[in-house]
Amino acid sequence: MAIKEGLRPGGRSARVQESIHSAVRELLQEQDRASLTVPQIAARAGVTPSTIYRRWGDLPALLADVAIARMRPDSEPANTGSLRGDLRAWAEQYLDEMSSEPGRNMMRDIQACATPGYCVGIISSQLQIILDRYPDAPNPGVDRLINVVVAPTVFRILFATAPLAVEELYRLVDVALGQ
């Protein structure tokens, strides 16, 4: 799947992409994703179905692109004043967002079509921002945080009957920090 980045902000392609993304988000609010079709999305976005097929190839690729766009953070992670606090706040927000039904669907869409490593890049950059705030604190490294905190969180969201409890998530943050 081609990830639709690098479009000139405000350019025609960016406007068309945003119109299509908005149509997908609106339609998913109104109906079950299993009944969603490219012609419906095109009609809502005011484009032809061929525009969608030309840009994304198929519906799963479009859904993944919309999910990836939603996954990109709007702002930096919360600054609580401590490395442990920032990591706990980030992890709790991630758990909250991704364990919701839309979050799980988004993760599945991305898993089905996304370029390998792309989501790791998004998460890594957020975690690196947090680590960079505390240059004097012991630094567990982004890879350790992903392996010890993010990976079990994602596994439980996608494959278990219930996501991690917040207390267990906090324990994983402490393990990653060596506490």
From TrEMBL:
GO terms for molecular function: DNA-binding transcription factor activity; transcription cis-regulatory region binding. The keyword DNA-binding applies. The keyword DNA-binding applies. Residues 14-74 form the HTH tetR-type domain. Residues 37-56 bind DNA. Transmembrane segments: none annotated. It comes from the Bacteria. Pfam families: TetR_N. This is TetR/AcrR family transcriptional regulator.
